[in-house]
Design goal:
The radius of gyration is 17 Å and the shape is globular. The protein contains 8 helices and 13 strands. The protein has one domain: 4-Layer Sandwich (Glutamine Phosphoribosylpyrophosphate, subunit 1, domain 1), CATH 3.60.20.30. The strands form 2 sheets. A 9-stranded mixed sheet has the order 4-3-2-6-5-1-11-12-13. The chain has a 4-stranded antiparallel sheet with strand order 7-8-9-10, covered by helices on one side. The chain is of the alpha+beta class. A hairpin with a 4-residue loop joins β12 and β13. The protein binds glycine. The site of glycine has 12 residues, from β8 and α6.
């Protein structure tokens, strides 16, 4: 029936990312994540399997602010949020303020598939994880030397050293036009204990609808949540805009209205790609056929054959 070219598109977080060396590492990481998700599709996996795989890879890589390497709250702890959504029937799952879970995105998917809820929080989410075969890590396992140092700097100067880097996410479309989106974050450095982010909010951090498209966002959480950025992009596409115009247009509107920054990745139901960010940089990559496309700076779009 359909002749859509499958695509897996990922982002590694919008932010200042002032170090070129770090930007290069992030680009390597997102390229790997996009390719891993794409391989899942190629080997017969679902779009949910693909976005989960891409996000898990970034959660396991301490360079990203999700899973291992998540920024620390003001009490020095990792508390993470994640959400996942399937475009076919709008089913969605999310977790918030979860500690010591290696892959929060896997837990969000379990909430979607094995509970009657959309969002589980904190200790309840941990109990649910245990019940469904996810054993929490030893307390503090996701804290790294870099995040400890960054929090110390933040406490000294109230300057966010790592919050210059956001959330991770992935969107995917298969040859049948099925869509999924997934997003995962450690949140913002120096946040209060118990703070939930836009990333766990369906419509702000994540959205997927097979009739329109799929979106994952990153950036200033309070701003993204107030603007419902992911769903705003969906609405703009429903109104006839293409993926790129809707993504860039909504981010520009949000940034003008609320004076804060964000980024997003989007796939339309026709497989068109949209990438936009009002931050200095955002690492992103996608695989389509035998090409991997990627970038990190404004107006950068490189690609290579693999
Ligand atoms: N967008 C992630 C956060 O603000 O926590």
């Amino acid at each position: 029936m359909s002749s859509i070219e499958p695509v897996v598109l990922v982002h590694g977080g919008a932010g200042t990312i002032s170090s070129d060396a770090k930007a290069a590492q992030l680009v390597q990481g997102v390229k790997k994540a996009a390719q891993a998700g794409y391989q899942i599709l190629k080997s017969g996996g679902s779009v949910l399997d693909a976005v989960q795989k891409s996000v898990e890879l970034m959660e396991n890589d301490a360079i990203f602010n999700a899973g291992l390497g998540s920024v620390l709250n003001v009490e020095g702890e990792v508390e993470m949020d994640a959400s996942i959504m399937l475009g076919a029937d709008l089913s969605a799952g999310a977790v918030t303020v979860v500690k010591d879970i290696k892959n929060p995105i896997a837990l969000a998917r379990l909430v979607m598939e094995k509970s009657d809820h959309v969002l589980l929080a904190s200790e309840g989410a941990k109990k649910f994880a245990l019940k469904h075969g996810i054993t929490p890590l030893a307390p503090g396992s996701l804290v790294t030397e870099a995040t400890r140092e960054a929090l110390a700097k933040w406490k000294a100067k109230q300057v966010a050293a790592l919050a210059e880097l956001g959330t991770v996410g992935a969107v995917a479309i298969d040859s049948q036009g099925r869509l999924a989106a997934a997003t995962s974050t450690g949140g913002r450095e120096g946040k209060l204990a118990g703070r939930s982010s836009d990333t766990c909010m369906i419509g702000s951090g994540t959205y997927a609808d097979d009739g329109v498209g799929a979106v994952s966002t990153t950036g200033h959480g309070k701003t993204i949540a107030k603007f419902c950025l992911a769903h705003s992009i969906i609405k703009a596409m429903e109104g006839g805009q293409g993926a790129e115009a809707a993504t860039k247009g909504c981010i520009e509107k949000m940034t003008k209205k609320l004076n804060n920054t964000a980024g997003a990745i989007t796939l339309s139901c026709r497989g068109e790609v949209g990438v936009g960010f009002s931050t200095n940089r955002m690492s992103w990559a996608y695989q389509k056929g035998d090409e991997v496309h990627f970038g990190v700076d404004q107006n950068q779009h490189d690609f290579e054959k693999i």
